[in-house]
Amino acid sequence: MAGETQYGLLGPLAVRRDGIAVPVPPGQQRVLLAALLLRAGRAVSADELALVLWGDAPLASVRLSLQNCVMRLRRSLGAGAAAVVTEPGGYRIDAGPDSVDVARFEAALDAGRAAARAGSWAEAAGVLAEGLALWRGEPLSGVVSDVLAERERPRLAELRVQALEARIEADLHVGRHADVIVEVRALAAADPLRERLHALLMTALYLDGQQAGALAAYQAARQNLVAELGAEPGPELQRLHGQILAGGPVLAGAAGVAAGPAERSPAEVRYSLPPDTAAFTGRDAEVAAITAAVTAGHGGVVAIRAIDGMPGVGKTTLAVRAAYLLRDRFPDRQLFIDLRGHTPGQDPLAPEAALAGLLAATGVDPRYLPADLAGRA
To answer: Between these two residues, 255 and 59, which has the higher pLDDT value?
Structure first.
């Protein structure tokens, strides 16, 4: 923006006029400028500025010290900078929202959220990416103030993560799932207790056709939450886990349109079986007994069959083979749930999660799943 002074707080404090850096001496002048820019266009009281500048340190004259600090800042900024205006009981910097990177970032976040609510996912992704590009590092770097560090840095860091989450969600809606996997995996690893990031990672992996990877990501998130907080994942993460287990849709658009893995067809979603084993041999008697028992059912009678045996002898492989052979008898749906009874390194699947997966696969809107076990049963 030629001819204007730009102020940067999303990284080291920076002032640039016509692209040329304007030096602001370290210490009190940077703290004062940052405090005013964070409330650009609004008056900041002398008491608040004194707290930001000196904390609880006793001063002979707060008013005189603040006046001297303002005078030095005005001299450093020079002509062409936004005016530091004296207000009754305080000061104001007349910097417009387009000249302060924090204000521009917050405006981009609001605009991106509005576009997402309207279902304009490409617009949301673009606007949010522009806002995130304003970040140059840790906010308020070089501004030495305990008050601003405790009050503003966590707030701005949280807004940045929210913007990243919103942008990644928009990217998923426009089909960029493969592009975001590495990024969101790193974000989830850096913030392992933030369930939203784990949900985005699971969704990206699943949409990329990596169902096993998505389920593994859930287990990693669950282990972190249990180890650090002693708590199971929240309802949203559990619901997503159930949807992935069932091979169903995971992204709901603004108009209620849901998306599953790009390569899946509706028929494949109805049949959530793992792949059949091409080299399956033997077990002819067992296969014949299973198919005969199931095909003998008629008149609405439910046929329930169980395969018993030691771990590792091939019970699941046999059941899956029989299910493929019986597919023409069950055109509506064939569902598979891995209860992980003997899966090394993984806990058995919770009944609530197993039921969530079955219900999602049969078309129940995940938003309306009962939270408790009895309700799902």
So the answer is: 59
